[in-house]
Design brief:
Blueprint (H helix, E strand, L loop, with lengths): L2 H13 L2 H37 L5 E5 L19 H8 L4 E15 L4 E9 L4 H4 L5 E4 L9 E4 L1 H4 L13 E12 L2 E17 L5 H4 L1 E4 L1 H7 L8 E6 L5 H12 L4 E3 L1 H44 L1 H9 L4 H37 L13 H27 L3 H6 L2
Parallel strand pairs: 3-8, 5-7
Antiparallel strand pairs: 1-9, 1-10, 2-3, 2-6, 2-9, 4-7, 5-8, 6-7
Length: 409
């Protein structure tokens, strides 16, 4: 018997039990859909993180006063205040081209419609391109290091969601900073306001780290946030990315683990590891749903063997070998797995796009990404699991004694 005739017989047998076959295929679809959606969203998140951090200079290390080795670790025993002396010390390390200290803080900014909180970065803007090489001005210019009232706005600070300009060049805006102070022996929230004039607006980069921040001069930020003589961090610009590791080792020789050293690449790897761990947990749940589909195939085919015992006996009496009977039931499981896998991958891709719109995970810009290779592997997984699930019922059918099968009512 050729494969085409075998397939026709399998389709006919499945067609005679449409409802049961449909429900079994639905189980496979659900499992494949879950795995496909999660795979696409996971790939989209990874690419989004990489794109966001790639806007920053690759030959840059971020120095923080914390003793953590990275932003998500608790290693380290002390804290190193970052001062002008720290900047001088770091600048003398081999392969370090420049050191750019910065101060950051949250301030409220008032527009015509509402008051929103934004992150303010105080930095020497003549070196801004060293930190964010792709940053370009849309309007105006950068603020000089001696300007105490000028401010440069990220694109999404200057423009609203509809693309309408909220703050134009030359316009004055007020920043309000709040902090907790002890007044009269009790803690109390106090605030101060300072007016700034918009001197520049950055082009949209599609990077929330840049588009949703505002930038003022370093002295202005120190005064606004009362930082005294300490910085929140230092951007360390190395000669090339290949020297980052050597520079970090030299920093460790000087400060031990009492200072934080990280890079955009390390941040991306850390976030990806977190995302991958979470995804592995979710994938395991999705895989269980696919296993439930496989159990459904076993149940469907085993029930089919019981119902078609006389038919199997008749086929054997007509000369069908055990191998043909085995293949007949295996083809049925292949059809269930193949069709369920294809439909599951298709609905999973649609579901991932729907999820990304309905649940934007707190940030916008994440789009599911589907690689052909991964989609094929998911379909293959559903297909192979279906074949494995069909093995026992097929073997059971092949081993039936034809005489006993024909006697069965």
């Amino acid at each position: 018997m050729n494969p085409l005739e075998l397939t026709k017989m399998a389709l006919t047998a499945l067609g005679e039990r449409r409802l049961r076959t449909g429900l079994t295929i639905l189980m496979v679809i659900i499992g494949s859909t879950l795995i496909t959606s999660l795979n696409g969203l996971n790939a989209g998140v990874s690419v989004f993180i990489y794109d966001q951090l790639s806007m920053l200079g690759g030959n840059m290390l971020i120095i923080s006063p914390s003793g953590s080795t990275n932003l998500f670790s608790s290693e380290g025993t002390g804290k190193t205040p970052l001062t002008s002396q720290t900047v001088k010390t770091l600048s003398r390390i081999r392969w370090v081209d420049d050191s750019v200290p910065f101060v950051s803080g949250v301030a409220s900014i008032k527009s015509a419609k509402k008051e929103t909180s934004i992150l303010i970065i105080g930095v020497d803007q003549s070196k801004f391109k060293l930190v964010v090489p792709k940053a370009e001005l849309l309007k105006g210019g950068f603020v000089s290091s001696t300007d105490s009232t000028g401010i440069v706005l990220g694109y999404k600070i200057a423009y609203d969601d509809k693309g309408e300009l909220k703050f134009n060049i030359g316009q004055t805006l007020v920043l309000k900073v709040s902090k907790v102070e002890v007044v009269g022996g009790i803690q109390k929230v106090t605030s101060k306001e300072k007016a700034f004039q918009v001197k520049g607006i950055l082009k949209e980069l599609g990077n929330q780290l840049v588009d949703e921040q505002a930038y003022i001069s370093l002295p202005a930020a120190v005064a606004l946030f009362d930082k005294g003589n300490e910085y929140d961090g230092i951007y360390l610009i190395t000669r090339d990315t290949k020297y980052n590791e050597e520079v970090e080792k030299n920093i460790r020789r000087i400060y031990g683990n009492n200072i934080g050293v990280t890079s955009p690449k390390a941040i991306a790897e850390t976030i990806n590891n977190i995302v991958s761990t979470f995804s592995a947990y979710i994938f395991s749940i999705a895989f269980v749903s696919l296993l439930v589909g496989a159990i459904g195939i076993i149940t469907t085919l085993f029930t089919s063997v019981m119902e078609r015992t006389r038919e199997i006996g008749l086929l054997k009496a007509l000369g069908f070998s055990n191998a043909i009977i085995l293949l007949l039931f295996l083809v049925e499981s292949m059809i269930i797995g193949g069709v369920g896998g294809v439909l599951g991958v298709a609905t999973g891709m649609m579901g991932a796009h729907l999820l990304a719109k309905v649940i934007p995970f707190g940030i916008t810009g994440i789009k599911p990404i589907f690689y052909v290779k991964n989609m094929f592997y998911i379909w293959l997984l559903a297909f192979i699991l279906s074949i494995l699930a069909g093995l026992y019922p097929a073997w059971k059918a092949a081993k039936l004694n034809p005489i006993e099968a024909l006697r069965k009512e």
